[in-house]
Amino acid sequence: MENKIYIGKVKKEIPASQNYNPETDRVFIEGERLYLEKHSWDCGWYWSFGYIGNKDLHTHCNVFIKELLWHSKNEVFEKSIFNNNDNFWVFKDLLSQAYALKKAAEVYRHGGYCSSLKGVTDIIQSNVQEQIINKDLETVLDAMWDFLINLQEKN
Question: What global pTM score does this model have?
Answer without folding.
Answer: 0.87
